[in-house]
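Researcher: Here's my situation. A collaborator sent me these components and asked whether they could plausibly form a single complex. I don't have experimental data yet, so a predicted model of the whole assembly would be a useful starting point for our discussion.
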Amino acid sequence: MSQQKIPATVITGFLGAGKTTMIRNLLSNTGGKKIALIINEFGDLGVDGDVLKGCGAENCTEDDIIELTNGCICCTVADDFIPTMTKLLERAQRPDHIVIETSGLALPQPLVAAFNWPDIRSEVTVDGVITVVDSAAVAAGRFADDHDAVDARRADDASLDHESPIEELFEDQLTCADLIVLNKTDLLDGEGLSRVRHEVASRIARKPAMIEARNGEVPASVLLGLGIGTEEDIGNRKSHHELEHEGATPHDHDEFDSFVVELGPIDDPAGFAEKLKGVIAEHDVLRLKGFADIAGKQMRLQVQAVGGRIDQYFDRAWAPGEARGTRLVVIGLHEMDQNTVRKAIQALV
Ligand SMILES: Nc1nc2c(ncn2[C@@H]2O[C@H](COP(=O)(O)OP(=O)(O)OP(=O)(O)O)[C@@H](O)[C@H]2O)c(=O)[nH]1
């Protein structure tokens, strides 16, 4: 008798929507299922891997967490994702379930389509694609572009064939969903949330289930076991790019850029965060995350900024022999001036 296919859940969603937070919560309540986690993030710091490995889940040990670091998963399917899956499937102890966290800038379509490759298809199936949405960011209009401005730009430059890259990606990630998690409900009231629900629904023709969550707290029984087999339906969930350029090469990430800023110790983390908000707003930084060395503290500070909202918390002690330091990854649109932003952040300490 052939072995049953292993279900794989793809978790996607724009930068900072709460994917890692949701997975962290999931790993603490898997109902005994052994999970293998494949994670991919944009930027050179490996913050998500560090956060998830640090959560010490029994059913997903450090060995079960695989980081894909050679670029965005949707562009490295053949070179990175498929070989990783093949190796995972060769393990003596196979996982009960595979969870894949895409980078916040990934198109889920090419990844899901990879499950139709013969070697993978015979052993794994996509249990479902879950798209996490930052409800507060939707309410603030972060994905609703200024269409007049875009039209004006297009009139100036005939080669511009699509709308804002952020808006497109947001819609492409929704288009792929079997389940949409409207996260960060704590930041909105009932009316605001209902507007977000309508706005999200209006962006896609399909009507996947939509649930609300705070801090990604959704029971494993809801997230795992959707049983969809999404790879068989992926042809009906085309991205903007696929619709505009049938048969064209996949998209790249030229529209976005990331870089790492290194700093010395920070004396006043609250003051630093306040001033950082100003830099983020002035330079349209989309996402900033990393770890900070706070003078006189044994613990390192995790810094997470999504747009102008900054969270900071001490996550663990600096390990013996570990080089203390402040390292922050900054992600923005390509036109962001790296040198100016780097200098502006360095000037804060
Ligand atoms: N207020 C609030 N903050 C949240 C919630 N969920 C996540 N966050 C915060 O949002 C920030 C980003 O969360 P992550 O889980 O790292 O988001 P992500 O989607 O994994 O981010 P990328 O991997 O960079 O795309 C962190 O500071 C979280 O603590 C929520 O429901 N409410």
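Model: Some features of this prediction you could bring to your collaborator: The chain has a mean pLDDT of 90. The chain is about 30% helix and 25% strand.
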